[in-house]
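User: Teach me something about this protein's shape.
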Amino acid sequence: MEPQLRQAVTHGVATVVIDHPAKRNAMTASMWRQVPPLLAGLAADPAVRAVVLTGEGGTFCAGADISSLRESPGEAQELAVRAEEALAVFPKPTLAAVRGYCVGGGSQLAAACDLRFADEGALFGITPAKLGIVYPSSSTRRLVSLVGPASAKYLLFSGELIDAGRALRTGLVDEVLPAGELDKRVAEFTAVLAARSQLTQAAAKEFAAGRLDRDAHWGEQAQAGGDTAEGVAAFLERREPRFTWTPPGDGAPQNGATG
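Assistant: First, the predicted structure itself:
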């Protein structure tokens, strides 16, 4: 089977699978190119409320396919950055479910997700120093924001692999699960994400990324969108809320919201 990205949507959660098991799910140039349009389609789908990125079998992603680096390292890095940025700006919550190796370009993709849950046997590494490659500035800044300058330098300078426990301590991952429990926990947590207000999530995602000029916009969205009124009513009536606000551009109405 050709290397590919597979996707399926279940109960509001889209699962995107990196499928290249012959090379530990290494990303080919074609696979990198698939990422932005695939994410654009999921962003526009009102049925999708969260995305899980994972790898086929027992490996998340072993990085970029080395053959693509040999042919054109500059183009390969540009494709990886485009994919990473598309994931970072995706308007709905994203979660990387990591087992096995999460190395190089795999770590770029995982770091671009909002959250990272890992199997206890997962291994993480950022390996450009082993190949004489300059790690992109955007990727470096994202890594520093997750783990801090010292841990980022450790990873980048050495290219050494770290285990899931150390990744948790440094902030590279958010939860580490015992063997065999990752899928169950991811399913439980993403069900929670899918039930929460997309208005709250979208605004929080922008603010966390450093946007400083959107308070008025999100205030208008909150006032017109109805999620706040519904959340308060549901709390007082002791029932589950039915949030209806959806991100602009997904083809669904926003109860008259503009902005």
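Now, about its shape. The longest helix spans residues 73-88. Confidence is low (pLDDT under 50) at residues 251-259. If you'd like, I can walk through any region in more detail.
User: That's plenty for now, thanks!
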